[in-house]
């Protein structure tokens, strides 16, 4: 779709989100729509038991409305074109990083395929997709789907203080640590630098095997 305006791109997607910790923009949908995460939220000791995306800023009515709108628009015919427009428009060339789902997760193989299409059309931008939807990623790759070089799919661990038990095709992972400090993983420095990424971009770097986040 050519000739999009900024207003049209926002209308077709629900717009982007701007998490304060991140170096740039993101895209969030309701955490309640997480398929695996919504089940884990009921499991004691799981990462999702005290989901950050169900608290604080995320409970504000305007945020909830924006997330719900984005979820409803995932199958909008011009969603891919519009997301390409928005990501190119808002991403700073000097810091070309984009995070998918500061809230929510992959909904289907089509959803992942659409994100990969967007990444291919924004080759100078690094895309990070944290996900607990191992099955979606596995099915996408099994059906012949491929991950662009500028995409890092990072499989998130389910239980606090545990690395992911399963990985898909050797993809990098992440975990949440409350008590342990495993020396074999990279520890997110955000807690020591104002809860921001600062200059760290490990999450977007596929050669970093596992990133550990402090429980919060």
Protein architecture, described:
By secondary structure, this protein is of the alpha/beta class. α6 links the parallel β3 (126-131) and β4 (151-156). α1 (6-13) packs across α4. The protein has a 7-stranded parallel beta sheet with strand order 1-2-3-4-5-7-6, with no helix packed on it. It has 6 helices and 7 strands; from the N terminus they run αβαααβαβαββββ. Helices cover 27% and strands 14% of the residues. The chain has one domain (6-214).
Throw out a few tags for this protein.
14% strand; 216 residues; alpha/beta; 6 helices; 7-stranded parallel beta sheet; 7 strands
Oligomer: single chain
**Biggest sheet: strands, sense, closure?**
7 strands, parallel
Using only C-alpha atoms, the radius of gyration works out to: 17 Å
Question: What is the approximate shape?
Answer: globular
* Order of helical and strand elements: HEHHHEHEHEEEE
